[in-house]
Amino acid sequence: MDTKSSKLKQIVKDHYTEIVERSEQKGSSCCGSACGCSSEVDVMVEDYTNVKGYVKEADLALGCGIPTEVANIKLGNTVVDLGSGAGNDCFVARSIVGESGRVIGLDMTDKMIAKANKNNAKLGFKNVEFRLGDIESMPIDNSTADVIVSNCVLNLVPDKRRAFAEMFRITKPGGHFSVSDIVLEGKLPDRLKEVAAAYAGCISGAIQKEEYLKLLREAGFVNVSVVKSRRTDLPDELLMNYLTHDEIDQYRKSGTGVFSITVYGEKP
Predict the structure, then answer these.
(1) Which of 10, 27, 79, 220 has CB atoms 3.0–4.6 Å from 93's, for a disulfide?
(2) For the segment 30-76, what is each residue's pLDDT rounded down to a tens digit?
(3) Domains along the chain?
């Protein structure tokens, strides 16, 4: 792994460790103050309140979609959640796969794994487990997953080509993925890309939507399609952390768009 990628991963790990610590005290969210955005701005978070299997204590409001709602998960499936955080999407998936299924959450942050395990212990699920590991080199066997889900995590992975290859490796033939993520249309200002807090927070790990879909297809997935898309209008309050007034004006006029998308694809 190159030095830049290592530094970015450490930034992300430290950042999400801080989120867990803050959540233990008073709650937090991805686009709250812990993420470099204002506490009043929740520009990407979806409402899970009425989703079956939702566990409030496992929801740190770190997502940008609800990937399980279009994941076509079935009773008895094995589901792998990449970047599982405190376990929210894993518990939603568990409500669908039932006692006969299996759910594996993967996260690279020790304190997220500890919080997820704490939540799972309260729920008493024997077929949900959380593993510490890197999405670019997953501690998961080949052809494990019937379904992969992920929620606003893959944009934070420096080497997306490698991450998508790993997704392909652990998916069973005939299996599929449903991932929610942040992508761009148009050019993001360089200063937003370069600021570490922005990278670890909301948007700056994102790549162009067409490049994202291309990399998934190059990994071997077929029938790759965007099944849900939502434009995110970044408020000046957030942008002012990174850009001058003139740069914000240029950004607004550039036509650049930040989108929360949910992508579906299959392994032949």
Answers:
(1) 79
(2) 444 334 444 334 556 788 989 999 999 998 888 889 999 999 999 99
(3) 3-266 (3.40.50.150)
